[in-house]
Design goal:
By secondary structure, the chain is mainly α. 57% of the residues lie in helices and 7% in strands. It has 3 domains: 3-92, no CATH class; 93-124; 151-232, no CATH class. The model has no long low-confidence stretch (mean pLDDT 75).
């Protein structure tokens, strides 16, 4: 049995308790019944045969406890033997050992990096209130590709909306210049409608978000800074 198979078997013994306990109950019951049948076949009355077998074995619970100890102990001993053998082989071939260890370190690092990206993109919940209630509405051209909605079109959607609690819009394509302590830098900017923060359920730590009508020309000179940018502001 390979090391990984032994480890899986050990983990199964340690954590899949319900399934293993049922299997163990079946095995012990079958063993006791077989022993009782043998005594009955030898001429011992059924009741006396059952009492004799239970007395000799110490009962079903004692048998199950013994089996559990043997299973876990044997698997641990086998795993330790495999580990000792692997360490001896690595000491005999230092060059090969370095290659194996380097490969393992790189593999673990790459796996951790990939998981971090997947967690950030697919697993980590969105930092909004009730994210399961947020949906994205997209318009498509007659040819099938995504086509951003124009602002007048958004206003029509918002006026005719009857299926959603509220409807907001944003555009994330753009940059603005920011004068920081170390000089000017370009920051990624997001333009949002006046109710954008109400839709996603986010409140500012300081100050306020957009007031009604502040997404219209002549009134849209209001900026909400992210926490990271606000910390760098002079």
């Amino acid at each position: 049995m390979r090391l990984w198979s032994k480890l899986k078997s050990l983990l199964r013994n340690l954590f899949s308790k319900c399934e293993l306990e049922q299997d163990l109950d079946d095995e012990v019951s079958a063993y006791l019944q077989m022993a009782i049948d043998e005594k009955i076949a030898a001429g011992v009355p059924p009741g006396e045969a059952r009492r004799a077998i239970l007395a000799e074995s110490g009962g079903a619970e004692r048998l199950k406890r013994s089996v559990r100890e043997v299973r876990v102990g044997n698997i641990l001993e086998s795993v330790l033997q495999d580990l000792r053998y692997a360490l001896r082989q690595l000491r005999k071939a230092p060059g090969f050992s370095i290659t194996v260890i380097t490969t393992l370190v790189l593999s673990i690092g790459i796996t951790a990096a990939i998981f971090s990206v997947l967690y950030a993109m697919l697993i980590r919940p969105l930092p909004y209130n009730n994210p399961e209630d947020i949906v994205a509405v997209q318009s498509r051209s007659p040819l099938g590709y995504t086509q951003p909605a124009a602002y007048p079109e958004y206003l029509d959607w918002r006026r005719m909306n009857h299926g959603l609690a509220t409807l907001g819009g944003f555009s994330s394509s753009g940059t603005i210049n920011f004068e920081g302590p170390s000089g000017p830098i370009a920051l990624h900017s997001v333009q949002g409608t006046d109710n954008f923060f109400d839709v996603i359920g986010v409140s500012p730590i300081l100050g306020r978000t957009f007031a009604p009508g502040e997404d219209q020309d002549g009134k849209n000179d209001i900026v909400v800074l992210s926490y990271e940018v606000a910390r760098k502001a002079p």
